[in-house]
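Journal club prep, notes for RB
We'll compare a predicted complex against what the paper describes. Inputs for the glycinamide ribonucleotide case:
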Amino acid sequence: MKKLNLVVLASGGGTNLQAIIDSIEAGKLDAKIKAVISNNSKSGALERARSHNITDIHLSHKQFATPEEFNQKLISVLKENETDLVVLAGYMKMISPTVIREYKNRMINIHPALLPSFGGKGMYGIHVHEAVIESGVKVTGVTVHVVDEVYDHGPILFQKCVPVSSSDTPESLQQKVLPHEHEAYFRVIQLFAEGKIEIKDNRAFIRE
Ligand code: GAR
């Protein structure tokens, strides 16, 4: 079976990237990470890529005169790498509709809450968990979804609930949710590798 070519975009520590690398190395995921792209040259994600001999690319809007030049560069890197699936793993920058349209139904994101709650502008990383605690909800979780042109929106591929206890802090909640992210993301990617995902009328269907 042909391996699914992945390009992972990540801004931070890269624990989700690491979980994907580990699943590939353990033979649990039929994919190859062709490159890791980060807007942050000092990100743990780029460091993790380098230590596993994966091409690491620092690509930031700041390197380009216009957003369109950045978008064209990103698209050309994705094409050069014959990308089958673009994987956002803690990528904290908006992806432009130009890029999203080019990779329609072939770009996925992981979010540390149950969308459509606690998504949208400013809802990334620890801020999501802060908002969850402040709201008083008793369950949070993980969502993996296909990226469409609306931020934190698009056909939902997977969700898992995680209980919120009264003693939780944003930090403790983050630590509770992260292992579920790590467990979920590679499984969803494997479903793409097996050709089991079908997107119809803005809903994702998983073939048994
Ligand atoms: C993860 O919790 C991921 O779900 C979140 O950022 C963290 C990155 O951690 N993404 C978002 O909030 C996107 N809106 P990592 O760098 O250790 O994988």
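Talking point for the session: The mean pLDDT is 97.
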